Amino acid sequence: MPATILLGAQWGDEGKGKATDLLSSASDIVVRCQGGNNAGHTILAGDRLLKLRLVPSGILYPHVTPVIGDGVVIDPAVLLEEMDALAAAGLEVGRVLVSGNAHLIMPYHLELDRVTERYLGKASLGTTKRGIGPAYADKAARIGLRVQDLTDPKIFRQKLDVALKEKNLVLSKVYNRLPQDSDEIAADYLAMGERLAPHIADTSARLHAALRAGRRVLLEGAQGTLLDLDHGTYPFVTSSSTVAGGLLAGAGLGPMAVDRVIGVSKAYVTRVGSGPFPTEDDGEAGRHMSETGHEFGTVTGRARRCGWFDAVLLRYAVRLSSITELFLTKLDVLSGLERLRICAAYRHADEVLHEFPAHQSVVHKVAPVYEEHEGWGEDLSAARRFEDLPAAARAYVARIAELSGAPVRWLSVGPDRDQTMEVPGP
Ligand code: IMP
Questions:
Q1: Could you tell me which CATH class the domain 266-422 is placed in?
Q2: What one-character-per-residue DSSP string does 80-97 give?
Q3: Which of 227, 237, 264, 295 to mutate to test the pocket of ligand 1 (most atoms within 8 A of CB)?
Q4: Residue whose CA is closest, atom 2 of ligand 1?
Q5: Cβ contact 405:317 at 8 Å
Q6: How many helices and strands, by DSSP H and E, does the chain display?
Q7: pLDDT reported for residue 123
């Protein structure tokens, strides 16, 4: 049975948690494939508001096996704290599986994320300061420590000493920080390793076996397409691959293992951190989206920048990940705006661009070419069927699908589980 991919089609924070939660009920295994605790899902399950950073949201369903795959970078302290909180909320966490190949975020990664951002000054990326970039950098430089190293204290210590020697030089000589202590780190991490040991598994092999046995596997993306290391708005991106191909690599599966790719997108656009954002609106409409949509980051609490729906971005996401269907979130937030805009193309000098520009300098300079659409005043939060929506809202959704090149299959009008509706096909 082929697996399904669910990923963010914008700059992250599209409401993937809610979409994953819905699809998890019909899955046997839910897999995190990349990123780390820079991601944050907020899920409202009954009256419980759960914030998840590393554990896939499938954990809420007792029949689901949550898997943290090879491509994830793990801060073990955060993972254990999250598992403790989930256990305290009555969830069975013994079933969480963690790949031995996943890399570890070390204390010096956290420190380096903080000091390099400070050092960059005005050119800073606005990272989440969770050590993500430095951990992936060490992975690529082949001096990273992996989850499996936690089970071999001698090897762990050897690798730590090699890495720390260089890190301490950089921390003390370049950034004027105190060096870190190898004994202390080893003691902390090996103790955490003992707690994590029962969860460590060959997750890629487990996923293959599950697919062969006809089990339903959902690969859950973190961050979003425009934050992809190769295809996003570099350098204002995260350090992992957030597109469908990256998720497959991070899970240890091949392209033929999947037959559906669901792109999650807001009915408008938000972005946290620095970097270009062609449809950003810092006027009345942007304020409306920010306030009505409660647009503050789950991980850092930072205010998200808001703007109009951008079909150029979405077409790009559809192309990069072979998105087969869309899950559109937060349509209710647009209620009360008299006129709505959709960016159908970009203008650069005298040219109209229908595709996302390949050159970063062009992305910084484009002006959106907007279509104007009629808004609606009605509160949508009680709507449960597409037919219940005002005609203007239905027309807006239909236009998004048309411009993006993928059908809108689900629509959400509020944070509750039951505030999601299926959109009938054409
Ligand atoms: P990093 O992933 O912490 O290195 O941050 C790099 C960029 O990605 C920054 O602009 C962050 O704000 C952004 N970012 C990372 N994770 C997320 C996420 O889950 N949602 C939205 N933005 C994110």
A1: alpha beta
A2: HHHHHHHHHTT---TT-E
A3: 227
A4: 238
A5: no
A6: 12, 20
A7: 86
Residues with CB under 6 A from ligand 1: 12-13, 38-40, 125-128, 130, 132-133, 222-223, 227, 236, 238-239, 272-273
| Among the four given CATH numbers 1.10.300.10, 3.10.20.310, 1.10.8.60, 2.60.120.200, the one describing domain 103-196 | 1.10.300.10
- What does the radius of gyration of the chain's CA atoms come to, in whole angstroms? 22
pLDDT at position 37 is 95
Position 259 scores a pLDDT of 96
State the pLDDT at residue 122: 87
Of ligand 1's atoms, which has the minimum distance to the CA of residue 35? 2
The overall average pLDDT reported for the chain is 95
Looking at ligand 1, which residue's alpha carbon is closest to its atom 9?
A: 127
- pLDDT (0 to 100) of residue 41: 78
Ligand 1 centroid – CA 395 distance (Å): 32
Q: Measured on CA atoms in the order 245, 249, 250, 252, is the torsion positive or negative? A: positive
Residue among 73, 127, 228, 269 whose CB has most ligand 1 atoms within 8 A, to mutate: 127
Cis geometry, peptide bond prior to residue 134 (ω within 30 degrees of 0): no
Question: Per residue in 204-263, pLDDT tens?
Answer: 999 999 999 999 999 999 999 999 999 999 999 999 999 999 999 999 999 999 999 999
CA distance 149 to 295: 39
Query: Which positions are annotated as active-site residues?
Result: 13, 41
Average of per-residue pLDDT across 355-360: 96
pLDDT at 423 exceeding the cut of 70: yes
Q: Which CATH architecture has domain 3-99+199-260?
A: 3-Layer(aba) Sandwich (3.40)
Domain spans in the chain, listed from the N-terminal domain onward: 3-99+199-260, 103-196, 266-422
Report the pLDDT value the prediction gives residue 46, as an integer from 0 to 100: 63
